[in-house]
Amino acid sequence: MNDFHKYDNEVQPDNKFGHTLRLLEEHLPADLGQDGVHLDLACGFGHIAEPIKDRFGLHYVGVDVDDHELDQLRERGLEAHAADLTDPDVGERLRKVLDGRRLVSVTFLDGLEHLTNGTYALNALGELLAEHRAIAVTSVPNVTHLDVGIKTLLGTWDYTEAGLLDVTHFQLYSERSLTAAFRSAGLSRIGREDVLLAKSDQHFPSHHVGLSEATTFSRYLRTVRGDAEPNGLVNQFVWALTAAPARPTRHYVDPDATEADRFLSVVMRTQGRRIQELREALLCLGAQSCQDFEVLIVAHRTNAAEQKAVEVVIDDQPPALRERIRLILLDRGQRSAPINAGIDAATGRYVAIFDDDDVVMGDWVKEFADAEREHGGRLLRTIAMKQGASVDTVRGLPGIRSTTAPEKAYDHDFSLAGHLVANQSPPISWIFPRSLATDFGMSYDDSMTTTEDWEFLLRAAQVAGVTDIGRGTAIYRWWETRESSRTAHPADEWAQNQREIERRVDSRPFLLPPGETRQLRTDLLELKELRKRNARLERQIRRVEQTSRKKTQQIRRLRGKVRQGQPQGQKPGGAGARAAKPGLRARLRPRTRVKALARRLRGS
């Protein structure tokens, strides 16, 4: 054991061994009793043996296929047995090793990935945990670490002697595939303490632009990856497991099974307080020329009467529509919570957010479906008209009345740069691929009290891009007398949320689609010319002001000289003056001369 070996690593608090011991300490029962056995599968050098004995008082039993390593265990006075974990009968072999003794815990550290077929070992582990009510801790390298992912994206796959891409690894695991393998074997995770490494053994060469956290490219990839999945810095999954009912799954992904047959999932949030508007919204959907959609009505924080009212409206729908409506009850969260709940339950390739007080035309779904055939994967955007509306009472029943003609209040063409200034796309006018939620981890931010759709749109448009359909298909109702989000939240709250959006945009790299830079160049050139023109005008104004000040000062000096030339107490042009200088009347009119001089100066 003193000879160097690539797997001969000491127990440290921050490596897989230290994390394993903490998980065992957390999940083992307080009273372990006597003669409990700890089974260490793929034990190697048995680094964890002494800590298991000393800390928990368990009898250590090592199991491996390498005779040399087993002999070293026996030399240390430890019990060791040979077993092939890829043998279909490995379960029976492990029972013989236990020989009727009580199994308390199992460790299976960095062994699964070395097996050509890990199914038999996992099935045996699940059976043993169920029979003895024991727990297990396993560690498995994470092949989706950022270092591996970035290099793979750029076409590099570097096998190494040890580490994440060890040359002896037969199967590679992500969190999703590892969870599926455990679930199929009757194992369920009850705790985790993963080993994190910002720079893994795959972090080479050191000058790699993609791996550097300081580069724009790397920051953008890390941002997108961080939204999509949280394990970018996980070097090893270290999980505590217990037995659970097995749920067999394929050990490979069937591409056909991942395809969604339905085109659109319409998410409609309601509080059950706008029943007539909800009826009209569902009437619009029932009249669609394309019926390839489902409706998810999320009743948010409704009381019994409001919930009942919503259920009545759903029951009143034609059977063909009613069978495609699902009611989801939600009693938590703020404005965005019902949207996220609807997205989670959606099955369509695309998702639409349809507030219960808006109206769509009969070709709303069809226009989107036609655009998907050529532009699938992008956000699809039509034009929403803005129209004033109010609620009136007709024969004792509420009714919706339009108060203005439909108005083109939003930009015809989508500009991502333009949307940084103001939102020009009401939620009813665009739909997004559900993959943004399932594969990129995007959701509506429930911490925002307003503008949550704008914030989501800015993130989604960067990743997916936007296709303009160019047709008016919806009416965004502008309520004049009834309460709406516009009136329920004060202006400073809207401004605060906008500042938060701007802060988030400024905190991360921003990706513009093709063509946007051309418009930005045009706008920046115009702005540059305007700034030059303003600068020239400001210089001219300063010169005029300076000239005016000089002339004013000259006038004041002349007036002062005139006053100094007069006898004290004598007014200019008075009788005393005439007596002092008879015959010089024209020269003794200083006020007149000063005024004339001032006029000449102003005119020059």
Task: List its traits.
604 residues; alpha/beta; nine-stranded mixed β-sheet; 21 helices; 17 strands
Secondary structure tally: strands: 17
Described by strand count, sense and barrel closure, the largest sheet is: 9 strands, mixed
- Assembly category: single chain
Q: Helix count?
A: 21
Structural class by helix and strand composition: alpha/beta
The low-confidence parts are 575-581
Q: What proportion strand?
A: 15-25%
Notes on the protein architecture:
The chain has 604 residues and is α/β, with parallel strands linked by helices. The chain contains 21 helices and 17 strands. Strands 9, 10, 11, 12, 13, 14, 15, 16 and 17 form a 9-stranded mixed beta sheet that branches. Helix 4 packs across helix 5. The radius of gyration is 39 Å and the shape is extended. The chain starts with 15 loop residues before the first helix and ends with a helix. About 1% of the residues have low confidence.
Which helices and strands appear, and what pairs or packs with what?
Layout: H1 16-27, E1 36-41, H2 49-56, E2 59-64, H3 67-75, E3 79-82, H4 90-98, E4 102-109, H5 119-132, E5 135-141, H6 146-153, H7 175-184, E6 187-192, E7 195-196, H8 216-228, E8 234-243, E9 264-270, H9 275-286, E10 293-300, H10 304-315, H11 319-322, E11 325-330, H12 337-345, E12 350-353, E13 359-360, H13 364-375, E14 379-394, E15 397-402, H14 416-419, E16 430-433, H15 435-438, H16 452-464, E17 466-479, H17 485-488, H18 491-506, H19 516-564, H20 575-580, H21 590-603
Parallel strand pairs: 1-2, 1-4, 2-3, 4-5, 9-10, 9-12, 10-11, 14-17
Antiparallel strand pairs: 5-8, 6-8, 7-8, 12-16, 13-17, 14-15, 14-16
Helix pairs in contact: 4-5, 9-10, 19-21
